[in-house]
Structure formats: C-alpha cells, structure tokens
Design brief:
230 residues; 29% helix; three-stranded antiparallel sheet; binds glycinamide ribonucleotide; alpha/beta; globular
Length: 230
C-alpha cells in the first residue's frame, strides 16, 4: 500500500492543496515528489479531474491521495458542472486549488469564491499567448525566449495576476514538441516553488495585486537556476 501524502503525523495544521488536472499529470507528480522529498510544506488532499481516465488520477491513487472524477457530460451547463465540481472540492477544505493542466474554462460565478485561493500554470510568458498552442505561437512569432507562468485565476482566461515565470531560450531548430518538452521540467520547478512560497505565507493576492512578503509585486518573480524565486 502506498503511504498517504495527507495527514502526516508530525505537523499541524498542514496547508491543504487540491489539484485539478485533465491529463498526463506530470506537474501533479512534481508536487507529489516534492512533498515526499520534504520540499513542499503542504498536503495534497484531493486530485480532481474532468476525465475519468486521466493519468493524473492514477498518479494520485498510487500516492494514496483522494481522487474525484466528474464528467461534464453529466451536467446540463458549464456552470452546473463547475458548481458541482467546486462544491465537492470544498468538502476537502483546501487552502489552495492548483490547476495543473486542467483544460477547461471556468464559470465566473463558480470561480468567484475561490479567487485568491486558486492558481494555474500556463505554458507561455503571459501576457503573451493566452489560450492554446502556445509553443507553436511562440515559434511563429520568432521569439527568442519562451516560458511558463503561474498566475492567480480570475474570470479572465489566463489573465489573472502573474506570480512567477520560468524562461527558456528558443533554439533555431526547435519544434513545438521540443520546446514543450524542454519547458516541462522548468514548469515542474516553477510550480513547486510557487506553491511552496504560497504555503509558507510569502505570497498572497490582495484585490488584483500579488503581494510578496506584504509588498506589491511590480514584476513577476523569476525562477532561478537553484529552483528559488527571485
Ligand atoms: C503543462 O504544460 C501546463 O502548462 C499546461 O498543460 C500542461 C500539463 O501537463 N497547461 C495549460 O495549457 C493550461 N492552459 P501535465 O498534465 O503533464 O502536468
């Protein structure tokens, strides 16, 4: 039996994370691995998905984390699905909800109570390339730098205040796949670093401003070579 990542015996009260993921779940795995290695002061109390067969759910089960799968087809509207999903998520009392490859647009009313308590990782240097096909769009634009952003989620798609970014250089022979592949490892480090900083209380959202140690963040933090944010 895999040991549960929730409710460790040693600490109280733990910062509680819920992770929403639609697919592969490599960012979820990075959080699980960091938690196991002692690099994430938070318990993952739920992994939820809109896809019953998402590999992310399997990763959660293997780690002994509670899972939830709801099928949007069982709900008449997007709003009804989101309302049901977040009602179930709320039962697990998360301090933070992490969208880690959760590929749905959220209903504004269902989202409203979570603003300030929900972050998303998006594979571009926001505000560039909201939405899909970010790697292809960066290549088509001839960008020298590409990257990933962690931002607080608001009703505006990929438009919420950015907490931190990781950058990689674009190579002349890059394809969307090579770029995505090279970025993924940076995304993992970026997400772990952001969640850790939020769990430690260093980062918060006030109105539409990210606060870093109580001060407004003028520009997003950057992921450094040592995995820290600065
Ligand atoms: C990541 O690249 C993440 O940035 C992206 O989906 C991938 C999930 O990978 N998210 C979005 O595109 C959200 N708009 P994973 O399932 O292996 O964690």
């Amino acid at each position: 039996m895999p040991s549960s990542l929730a409710n460790p015996e040693s600490r109280t009260p733990a910062f509680r994370l819920a992770v929403l993921a639609s697919g592969r779940g490599s960012n979820l795995q990075a959080l699980i691995d960091a938690r196991r290695a002692g690099g994430l002061p938070a318990d993952i109390v739920l992994v939820a998905s809109d896809k019953a067969f998402a590999p992310a759910l399997q990763r959660a089960e293997e780690a002994g984390i509670a899972t939830l799968a709801l099928d949007p087809k069982d709900y008449a509207t997007r709003a009804a699905f989101d309302e049901a999903l977040f009602a179930r998520v709320a039962e697990h009392r998360p301090d933070l909800v992490v969208l880690a490859g959760f590929m749905r647009i959220l209903d504004a009313a269902a989202l409203a109570p979570w603003v300030g308590r929900m972050i998303n990782i998006h594979p571009s240097l926001l505000p560039k390339y909201r939405g899909l096909h970010t790697h292809r769009r960066a290549l088509e634009a001839g960008d020298a730098l590409h990257g990933s952003s962690v931002h607080y989620v608001t009703a505006e798609l990929d438009g919420g205040p950015v907490v931190a970014q990781a950058e990689i250089p674009v190579r002349p022979d890059d394809t969307p796949d090579t770029l995505a592949g090279r970025l993924l490892g940076e995304e993992h480090r970026l997400l772990v670093a952001c969640v850790a900083r939020i769990a430690e209380g260093h980062i918060a959202l006030a109105e539409s401003t990210v606060l870093h140690d109580g001060r407004p963040l003028a520009v997003p933090l950057r992921l450094q070579g040592d995995g820290q944010l600065a």
